[in-house]
Amino acid sequence: MQLHESNPAPNSRRVHIFMDEKDVEISRVNVDLRAGENLTPEFKAMNPMGRIPVLELDNGRFIAESVAICRYLEELHPSPRLFGNTPESKATIEMWNRRAENNFMMSVAMAFRNISGIFKDREEISAEWGAISARVAADLVPVFDEQLSRNEFLAGDEFSIADITFLVAYEFAGRVQVEVPELPNIDRWLADMKTRSSYSAR
Q1: Which of 45, 88, 149, 176 has the most Cβ atoms closer than 10 angstroms to its Cβ?
Q2: Crossing angle of helices 66-76 and 10-22, rounded to 10°
Q3: What percent of the chain has pLDDT above 70?
């Protein structure tokens, strides 16, 4: 297998952390996003959406989308379970992972793309929408802090894909123009995340 990715893009980092938690090694191929290598016909033959990462399987097929790649790796390497063990834990992890991705991470990404204008040569941008997205992302942070006030990890008592998603999104927000509030329960959780060996995965 080969992982076509771009370091330190958040979705690539999400897969890196997941792989480290599973103690899985996969050959990697760097894709230069700024140079537009993800928009070439060769790359779009792997993923017509033109996004990274993409997992190239030994049978010549491709799996795109970082969570889909993680689910595939979970099936190949079921321990430790990062998508849950019981019907309730699976549903709870899915719920918080979707909240972290569809609400917070997406807003951070929209702020980054529209404020920085890094890809303005290939997509329409709006500074106004970027500013709105940054505010939306910042306003969501207390929701996650409240959840962490009652739980060791984002989806309960066990580390999961939801923690990985929120971690890469929260750190990404800190690198772009999103002023996230510093809150005590997130600070405690983040300190715990930094003690995990997978935190250093790149």
Answers
A1: 176
A2: 10
A3: 100
